[in-house]
Amino acid sequence: MFYRFLLAASAAVFLPFSLGAQEAGEAADICPRIQASTVFVDDKTGSRKRGSADRISETHKTAERQGWDFKDLEIYIEDGDLQGFFITYTRPHPCNAGQAPSTP
What we know:
Layout: H1 2-23, E1 34-42, H2 52-65, E2 69-78, E3 81-92, H3 94-97
Antiparallel strand pairs: 1-3, 2-3
């Protein structure tokens, strides 16, 4: 379910661009060069057997299987406590690759 959000978030980012181009009467074949998606990996404090590094590694492996490349990682701290991590992934947009994106 988490990775369906990943794909839905990407679609939500680029859908307005494609709709705007069609409304403006521009060519319908305009396609973004890349897709980008940012996911949040929660830090479940108090868990010693399954730490944040394991969850981040699992997220990386799943994203890689779907054709995403790691771009950036930002730490989210609130009130001095680690809350989690925002991880950004990119990949060529499917209209440039000539194929639809993979689904989990």
